[in-house]
Every structure is written in C-alpha cells, then in structure tokens.
Structure to design on (321 residues):
C-alpha cells in the first residue's frame, strides 16, 4: 500500500514538472518570439498557475484537458471569486486559448479545448476623464521648494502632456527626454519604441526638476532613471499611484485618479481639440486604432452632456421667463 502511494506521489510530481515546463516554454515564447511586455507575461503566468492548481487538484494532465474541464475551472472560479468581472473572465479564457493554441502548434495536442468557449459579453465602460479645470487643479498641487514637490510637478505634467503609461514613465532614463527638441522617447508594450512631443509647461517642469531637485534625491549612488525617490532609486508604479491619489484628494477631486486617468484625459482632450485619431493612436502606442476609438465615445458623451446642460429645448417640461 505504501509503495502504491509512493508511486502515485511520484507520478503527480512528474506530471507537475511536465506541466511547469510546458508553461515556462509558452511564457518564453510569448516574451522572446512574440515580444510581449514583462507585465503581460506576468499576468499570463498568474492565470496559468491558477489553472494548473485546478487541474492538479482534479488529477488531470494539461494534455488531458477537455472543453468540459475548462468550463468546470471557469465555473469554480466564478464561485470562488463571487462573480468576477466579465473582463477578468474574458482575459482568463484568452490566456488559456493562447496556451492551448501553442500546444497544438507544437503538435502536443490535436485540438484546442478552449475554442468552443465564448468569452462573456462586456459592456463598454468609458474611462474616467478629468476636465480641464480638474487637470489644472491637480497639476497645481505640488508646491514649495522641496525636491519631491518639484519631482511630482514634473512627473504629473509629463504624464498629462504625453499620455505615457505609468510603466513607461518609471522606465524613462535621463537621456530619454530631449528638452531642446521637445520630445520624449519611451519603450512601450512589446518593447516598441515611440517618440512623443512634450508641451512647454511639462518641459519647463522637467528642466526645473533636473537642475533643482534631482541632484538632491539620494546622496551617493543614483539610478539612471529620470524620476527618483528620496533614496536615489527609480520610482515604482505603486509610488506614482500613491502620489497622484494624494494630490487628487488634496485638490478636492472626487473622481478616482490614477496615472491612467491622466492618459485618458490626454487622449480625450486631444481629440476634443481636433487631433486626428491616427495621430492620437501613434502617440498612445496603440497597436489597433479600435482601442483609441473609445476616446471618441468619451468626447461624444461630453458633447451630449454640454448640449443637455446648455440648450433651452433639450429637455422636456422647461419653463421660460
């Protein structure tokens, strides 16, 4: 009996090693052949590890997975997470579909068990956007001569001026911003480089930070990152988020403000000002113009709100003096 248990444990261990190896090979394929960003690969790893735990608990091999077992996994996930968002479920289905497509491509499977599974329908959630007055209030919050205040002012001005993702912002080096030419160079998703114009207020704030603040952040060893913390190391995504939330609260802005809120505001205000969709797509680094089109919906909604707030015949039952 003990021998049978030992053999079964060894079988589980061997199967687990094979599944780990297949997942690692797939993630390496995503990173080095398809050029997906590190954060995307991390997200894929998290979802696949969650799926592996499920099939291990059910005594399955990744090569034995059926459509029914994938559905069981998704239903179990729904019960555990109490109705996860449609976008979350859609992402997990997409990750599994890509993984099993890779296994088919490697001739390890004959058919993709995820193909018959359709992702849940998702409503189009419009992004949170600050209006011009709110942007002005937010950007005016950092004050005083402390290095951190000058850094924060430059950082927020640059986010709104360029629409950078927070990962792109914290990845900037000193040499990535050309204050004379008025451009910033960043590495976007999939290690794709793009050049974005920078407005004069943002350039002025960055120059002030470089001359009067950055030299005083960290005493000895400094990172090559453009934006530093008080220890002379590069800022993290979490620290940038925390800084923005603090200033938004200080400004009395009731909306949820994140680095991506400034990116949304950048795109929406450009389109509202007459910029063409393709130019905004290029500045945002979107691979598909359909992703950029969400901001045209935001602009239309804003116009509709202005119309109903302003036009005397827009609403029913209005009385006139």
């Amino acid at each position: 009996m003990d021998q049978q248990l030992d053999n079964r444990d060894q079988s589980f261990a061997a199967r687990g090693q094979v599944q780990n190896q297949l997942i690692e090979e797939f993630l390496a394929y995503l990173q080095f052949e398809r050029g997906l960003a590190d954060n995307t690969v991390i997200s894929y790893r998290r979802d696949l590890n969650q799926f592996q735990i499920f099939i291990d608990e059910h005594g399955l091999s990744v090569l034995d997975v059926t459509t029914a077992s994938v559905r069981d996994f998704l239903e179990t996930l729904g019960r555990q997470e109490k109705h996860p968002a449609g976008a979350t479920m859609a992402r997990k289905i997409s990750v599994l579909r890509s993984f099993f497509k890779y296994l088919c491509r490697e001739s390890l499977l004959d058919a993709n068990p995820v193909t018959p599974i359709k992702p849940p329908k998702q409503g189009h959630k419009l992004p949170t956007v600050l209006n011009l007055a709110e942007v002005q209030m937010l950007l005016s919050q950092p004050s005083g001569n402390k290095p951190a205040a000058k850094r924060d002012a430059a950082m927020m001005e640059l986010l709104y001026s360029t629409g950078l993702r927070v990962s792109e912002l914290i990845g900037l080096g000193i040499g990535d911003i050309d204050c004379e030419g008025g451009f910033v160079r960043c590495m976007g998703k999939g290690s794709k480089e793009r050049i974005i114009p920078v407005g004069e207020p943002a350039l002025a704030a960055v120059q002030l930070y470089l001359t009067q603040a950055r030299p005083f952040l960290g005493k000895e060893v400094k990172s090559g990152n453009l934006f530093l913390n008080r220890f002379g190391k590069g800022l993290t995504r979490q620290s940038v988020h925390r800084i923005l939330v603090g200033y938004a609260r200080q400004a009395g802005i009731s909306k949820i403000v994140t680095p991506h809120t400034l990116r949304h505001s950048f795109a929406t205000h450009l389109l509202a000002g007459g910029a063409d969709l393709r130019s905004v797509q290029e500045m945002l680094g979107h691979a598909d113009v359909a992703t950029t089109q969400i901001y045209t919906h935001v602009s239309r909604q804003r116009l509709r709100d202005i119309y109903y707030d302003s036009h005397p015949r827009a609403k029913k039952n209005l009385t006139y003096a």
